[in-house]
Specification:
4 domains; Immunoglobulin-like; mainly beta
Length: 403
């Protein structure tokens, strides 16, 4: 009976809608799962007035009687419509009509619906450093359409790396070794959600061996490593590789393989100056070859000799020169005559007397100093000394002054 009445009133409504006065048009936006009340209030409403609710042309109620789903709809007061536990199907245009007063109200309901939990797919079979990998994140439903956010270990990825179409996002990610074992996360969000929905996967990125050299407790970060002659040197070759290395470790000195050494550690028991050079640790896996190099600089104490001594005639020019072999270079020089320090610049390696006299006869000593540095930042001063005898020959016979 109510269905017949509903059909009849709907037929009448269609004819009257254009002739009726629309008092108001309003919009309501609400999240799915909630109850919503659509208010329909007419002035001077009588018990004889006929009031009907319809949605998109389908009758829902006539006065207090529900012609639709009685679990879904309810009339309260005169004549507000309650829609329970709303979902996306409840979005639409609702019409409340007073046939007797030829009045109507339009309410447009928009239901905000949640998208499904996203799913994340990896297009590439394997992920290899320096390649570009395609990841696809998809979800279903959602009003409004969900937005997408990509993250690596909770750090957002620049939007230029991904595209978004309805319910799908594609990420083209340049693969870096630092992303290995990190979490790639895809998040979707819209106004129906209190918090974003997310899914993730652990990145397994293959990369060629990454090699670091360590000297004692110190990671070698410079191309040059200072060591001290006669000390002991151990270089450790530390390798990170995915997949594992397929070749034994190779050590090279100045580009030439050091035969018989395949250990991750290279030890020089007593460092010699001949050990100076470039040392390289090398290995490979299925992705490629990795290597690390360091140039060993051997520091050593000055080794000196003095030129210009011997017998020299009176009034001649005397030049004593301190010839030095040292690394690093000399910090300072000192000159002595018969153990008395001479007052000359510490930066000069030569001692000069323009015109010698018999009083310049004696034993002259040169002292040269340099500073050797340890890897821990400390240093030690080293020196060497050597001497030469100068004898001034007088112009007169038998004139030798010996000091």
């Amino acid at each position: 009976m109510y269905i017949c009445i509903g059909v009849l009133l709907l037929t009448i409504a269609i004819g009257w809608l254009e002739a009726s006065i629309v008092l108001s048009t309003s919009t309501i936006t609400e999240r799915q799962g909630r109850d919503v009340v659509l208010s329909c209030q007419f002035e001077r409403l009588t018990d004889r007035d006929r009031v009907m609710w319809s949605k998109d042309g389908v009758v829902l109620s006539v006065n207090q009687e529900i012609s639709g789903d009685k679990q879904k709809y309810e009339i309260i007061g005169k004549y507000d419509l309650i829609i329970k536990n709303i979902d996306g199907h409840d979005s639409g245009q609702y019409l409340c009509q007073n046939f007797d007063q030829r009045l109507s109200m339009i309410i447009i309901l928009t239901v905000l619906t949640r998208p499904t939990k996203p799913e994340l797919y990896q297009s590439n079979e394997t992920l290899v450093e320096d390649n570009i990998a395609l990841f696809i994140c998809s979800t279903q439903g959602g009003n409004p359409l969900p937005t997408f956010t990509w993250l690596i270990n909770q750090i957002p990825i620049n939007g230029s790396y991904f595209t978004v179409s309805p319910n799908t996002s594609e990420l083209r990610l340049p693969l870096e070794k630092r992303f290995h074992n990190e979490q790639l996360i895809c998040q979707v969000n819209n106004k129906a959600l209190d918090n974003p929905l997310s899914t993730s996967r652990t990145l397994n990125i293959q990369y060629k061996p990454e090699i670091n050299l360590r000297y004692g407790q110190t990671l070698v970060t410079n191309l040059n490593l200072l060591v001290i002659e006669n000390d002991r040197l151990t270089l450790d070759c530390q390798i990170q590789s995915n997949p594992s290395t397929i070749e034994p470790i190779t050590w090279l000195k100045n580009g030439v393989s050091m035969s018989g050494i395949n250990s991750p550690s290279l030890t020089l028991q007593t460092i010699k100056r001949s050990d100076e050079g470039e040392y390289t640790c090398m290995t490979s896996n299925s992705i490629g070859r990795g290597q690390a190099s360091v140039h060993i600089r051997v520091q050593y104490t000055p080794i000196i000799r003095v030129t210009g001594g011997g017998i020299i005639s009176e009034n001649k020019r005397l030049i004593l020169t301190c010839i030095v072999d040292a690394y690093p270079s000399i910090d300072s020089y000192e000159w002595f005559k018969n153990d008395d320090k001479l007052n000359i610049s510490s930066l000069t390696s030569s001692y000069i007397i323009d015109k010698v006299s018999k009083y310049d006869t004696g034993i002259y000593t040169c002292v040269a100093k340099n500073t050797l540095k340890y890897s821990n930042g400390s240093s030690i001063e080293k020196s060497d000394r050597t001497q030469t005898r100068v004898t001034v020959e007088c112009k007169k016979d038998f004139c030798f002054f010996r000091n």
